[in-house]
Each structure stands twice: as structure tokens, then as C-alpha cells.
Design goal:
The chain is of the alpha/beta class. It has 17 helices and 16 strands. It folds into two domains: 4-229 and 444-457, Rossmann fold, CATH 3.40.50.2000; 232-440, Rossmann fold (3-Layer(aba) Sandwich), CATH 3.40.50.2000. The longest helix is centred in the C-terminal third of the chain and has 21 residues, at 308-328. The structure holds adenosine-5'-diphosphate-glucose.
Length: 472
């Protein structure tokens, strides 16, 4: 097996025994890196006064990580700026929040060049290079400019926007063209892939070849839909272990016989939390007999707190949950328990299991792993019901969830009522069908599918390899 070199904005080195607190992605990538004696490269999350290019190598549990520090201006323009104030909102259909500033764009280009400068001397001839996410779109092109001829793949974890939206990004063409320096580009769903192909064909005039690859200016790219999975078996096991059992028992005790409706999300405007609260409030008002018989637990650890739109959504949710609680609560009952902190994964598994229903209602989401984790954590003999936004990538796989339009409070309210009334046989049938998919298309399946596409070179691509060389 060729050595795997993973590159992402942040690096997650494996932690101790059992890696219990790590997400499936970090565990799966760590396993693949360990097996191929590979390396994970990225930003340390630390700042340095002036960029030195110094690489900090560490080895943890058989995995080598290599990290660099960035300057405060880099963090501001590249990370808080172009990544999280320009690309993230735009790619999540929030053009109203997208900020277009030359400084951000410059910072993004500079940091990608810094990554390329420090990474390229580490790349050996047979390495497979796998670059992740919207922070790093132009990195492949920068590496080619430095003469790297290895196979390089890119995976986008977030949605690909419709062409009409992408056209509002200054220099959109240059950004998309840079994807053609990869051998493989992976997107989470066929829908995002179709949007990408639409842009490539209508805006760039790229051609689709007989084998499905895209050809543009002498370069050939395989674009694939490759949905990320979770380690379903491991998550299911975790839900039966001590930490999870304790968390589940303690949740049930505190519920005092009431049905719990759960939400677990990073605090982000794309996750549809406000709309979810509106939908739940509507449910309570339409079904007054259910008041005091249910409650919602919304867990939402803050993220990207340096960005103003994140401060605003946090304030809005504080106000809205306070308003709903103030209006509907009684001395014995609070309709929404709103918690701004994270939990260890084992405890989360227990909370998922204690919930009669889980509301996963993003307005737009590349995939959404919470939906998958909720299903995997359920008791097979008495599973809860997943209520899932049809605008999450996960809806393409989890078709037996109650699919809702997250913008419609009525739709959300109806789904809550249906979930709480669903008989056990229907719950089991829906859960089983979803669990089958989660086990079949798990995180290792995802990883192997991508790496297979990246290694499965054909002669056609080999021929254009020479043309990958770009003048500096
Ligand atoms: P995210 O937007 O971060 O990821 P998601 O897929 O839901 O979203 O993953 C969140 C992860 O964080 C889950 O594993 C969840 O368990 C964990 N988490 C959330 N809240 C938590 C809490 N309070 N305590 C502990 N853990 C918590 C991006 C894309 C997604 C895509 C993923 C992976 O936006 O669409 O699914 O990458 O590709």
C-alpha cells in the first residue's frame, strides 16, 4: 500500500486507550494512516508572530502528525475570513451572510501556498495525497506548481452550491478551475456532484468523457459522490457500555416519565436551530395535551465564536429559548433544556438512546453525522424516531427517517406528533432499514471507496499526467 498523506485544516492526533472520545472520521483516518505508515498534516491551531514554516512532528499511537503554526493575520483572513465568512455561508445557501473581501481571498491564497511550501518537501514519489475540505481547495494546484506529480485527491465535506449562487463569488472560476489539478474530487451526495458537474459544464465548458471523468484544458478529473459514514458497529457497541448506560439512566431519571426530543448540533446557523424551536413550539401549541408530557433537550456547543454571525445566532437562540420557556413553562416543567456544551462521545451515545425522537433539521448540511449516530445508538428492540431535514446529505441514505422541510414549522410539528405516536413495529422496521445502510456504508467503506478511486488510475489519466505540470 502506498503511504497515505492526509491534509486538513486541523489535525486530530489519536488519543489514548480505545480512542473513545474521537469521532469515527479521526479513528478511521488514523487506522489508515497507521496501516500505511502515513502522516496527517495541518494547522496546529496555534499562532506565531511571524510564519517560519517550522513543522512540529509528533507520533501518537502509531500515527505521525505534522503541524504548522500560522500568523494572526492568517487566522483572521484565511480561517475566520475566507473559510468561515465567505465559503461556508455561500456553500450553505446563505449568500446574505457571505462576505467578499480581497483581504480574505489573499489570506486564503497565502495560507494554501504556505501549506504547499511546507508540505511538498515531505511528499515521497509513491505517496497518495488526500486533501480535505473547503479550507484547502487550491492546495492541489499549488502542489502541482511545485512539481508534485503524485496522485492527489480532494474531499469536500460541505455541500456544493448551485451554479447561480456560486457565480456571486468573486473569482469563482479560478477557485473551481483549481479542482482540476486533483485526480479525484469526492462530494458527499449525488446532488452536490450534479451541481458541481453543472458548473463545470456550463461555466468552464468541461467535457464528460465516456468513462464518466471530466476533461478540461487537457486535465482529467474523476468526480465522485462518496457519502461519509460513521463507524456504526463501534458506535452501537459504545451505546451499550458503562458511560452510555449511566448517561441514559441519568437522562431517563431526570425526564421523570416525559418523552425526550433531542437535538445535538454545533451552534451554527446552517443547523436550523431557530426553525427547530419554532416547529417544537408549534407542536406544543397544537397539542396542548402533550405539554408537560414531553421536553426538548438541545445540546449546542458554541463554535467559531470569533465570527459575528455566530455571535448573533447564539444571541437569537438565547432569546428564543427564553421566550418559549417563559411563555409555556409551568412551575414543574420547562419545555426546552438548552445546553451550550459538548459531551464525551460515550455520554452522547447514552443521551441518543434515551431520546424518543431526535430532531436533525439543518437548512443545508453536507452530510450530518448526528443523524447517523442517533440511529446507531438506538435499542434495536425499542428504537426512537429520527426526524431528518430533507436538505441534509444524510437524507439521501436515511430514507426511512421522517423527512421534513426544516423551514416549515407545521411540517416539523406534524413530524414530532407522528414520531411520538408511532407504534413499535413501525419504529423497528424504519430503524432496521437505516441501520442496514449505516453498517454497509460505514466510515471504512467511505475511506476505501475514496482511496480506491484515487489509486485506480487508468491509462487515460496516466497520459495526461505530463500536462498536470503547471508553469510556476
Ligand atoms: P459538522 O458541521 O461539524 O461537520 P456533523 O456531521 O453533524 O457536523 O458532525 C458533528 C460531530 O460533532 C458529530 O460527530 C457529533 O457527535 C459531534 N458533536 C456535536 N455536538 C456535540 C456535543 N455537544 N458534544 C459532543 N459531540 C458533539 C462537517 C459537515 C457535515 C459532515 C461532517 C463530516 O458540515 O455535513 O457530516 O463535516 O463530513
Amino acid at each position: 500500500m502506498s503511504r497515505l498523506l492526509v491534509v486538513s485544516n486541523r489535525v486530530q492526533p489519536p488519543v489514548g486507550e480505545g480512542e473513545a472520545n474521537q469521532g469515527g472520521l479521526a479513528v478511521a483516518l488514523s487506522a489508515a494512516l497507521r496501516e500505511s505508515n502515513g502522516m496527517w498534516f495541518g494547522w496546529s491551531g496555534q499562532e506565531t508572530e511571524s510564519f517560519t514554516g517550522h513543522i512540529n512532528f509528533q507520533r501518537n499511537h502509531g500515527v505521525t502528525t505534522a503541524t504548522i503554526d500560522l500568523e494572526p493575520q492568517d487566522t483572521e483572513e484565511y480561517y475566520n475570513g475566507y473559510a468561515n465568512r465567505t465559503l461556508w455561508p455561500l456553500f450553505h445557501d446563505r449568500i446574505d451572510l457571505a462576505e467578499f473581501q480581497r483581504g480574505f481571498e489573499g489570506g486564503y491564497a497565502r495560507v494554501n501556498l504556505r501549506f504547499a511550501d511546507t508540505l511538498s518537501p515531505l511528499i515521497e514519489p509513491d505517496d497518495l495525497v488526500w486533501i480535505h475540505d473547503y479550507h484547502m481547495i487550491p492546495l492541489g494546484r499549488e502542489l502541482r506548481r511545485q512539481g508534485i506529480q503524485n496522485r492527489i485527491g480532494f474531499f469536500l465535506h460541505i455541500p456544493w452550491p448551485p451554479t447561480r449562487l456560486l457565480l456571486s463569488l468573486p473569482h469563482h472560476r479560478e477557485l473551481v478551475e483549481s479542482l482540476f489539478f486533483y485526480d479525484v474530487v469526492g462530494l458527499q451526495t449525488q446532488e452536490w456532484l450534479d451541481s458541481f458537474l453543472h458548473y463545470a459544464q456550463t461555466q468552464l465548458g468541461a467535457e464528460i468523457l465516456e468513462d464518466g471523468c471530466l476533461s478540461y484544458q487537457g486535465r482529467v478529473l474523476r468526480a465522485i459522490a462518496c457519502p461519509i459514514g460513521i463507524d456504526a458497529a463501534a458506535f452501537q457497541d459504545m451505546a451499550n457500555q458503562e458511560l452510555a448506560i449511566q448517561a441514559c439512566d441519568s437522562m431517563r431519571r431526570s425526564a421523570e416519565g416525559r418523552a425526550m426530543i433531542l437535538g445535538v448540533d454545533r451552534l451554527d446557523y446552517s443547523k436550523g436551530l431557530e426553525e427547530r424551536f419554532w416547529g417544537y413550539e408549534r407542536f406544543l401549541k397544537e397539542h396542548p395535551e402533550m405539554q408537560e408530557k414531553v421536553f426538548m433537550l438541545q445540546i449546542a456547543p458554541p463554535s467559531r465564536g470569533d465570527v459575528q454571525s455566530y455571535q448573533e445566532i447564539r444571541n437569537q437562540l438565547d432569546t428564543l429559548s427564553g421566550r418559549i420557556n417563559g411563555e409555556l413553562a409551568s412551575a414543574e416543567w420547562v419545555p426546552i433544556r438548552y445546553v451550550n456544551k459538548g459531551y464525551p462521545r460515550g455520554a452522547l451515545a447514552g443521551m441518543y438512546r434515551a431520546a424518543a425522537a431526535c430532531l436533525v433539521t439543518p437548512l443545508r448540511d453536507g452530510m450530518n453525522l448526528v443523524a447517523k449516530e442517533y440511529v446507531a445508538a438506538q435499542d434495536p428492540e425499542d428504537p426512537g424516531v429520527l426526524i431528518l431535514s430533507s436538505f441534509a446529505g444524510a437524507a439521501h441514505q436515511l430514507k426511512q427517517a421522517l423527512l421534513v422541510n426544516p423551514h416549515s414549522a407545521e411540517d416539523v410539528a406534524d413530524a414530532i406528533a407522528r414520531a411520538l405516536n408511532m407504534d413499535k413495529s413501525e419504529r423497528i422496521e424504519r430503524w432496521q432499514a437505516m441501520m442496514d445502510i449505516l453498517r454497509k456504508e460505514d466510515v471504512n467503506w467511505w475511506l476505501n471507496s475514496f482511496v480506491d478511486a484515487l489509486t485506480g488510475g487508468d491509462e487515460g489519466r496516466a497520459k495526461v499526467r505530463e500536462k498536470d505540470k503547471v508553469p510556476a
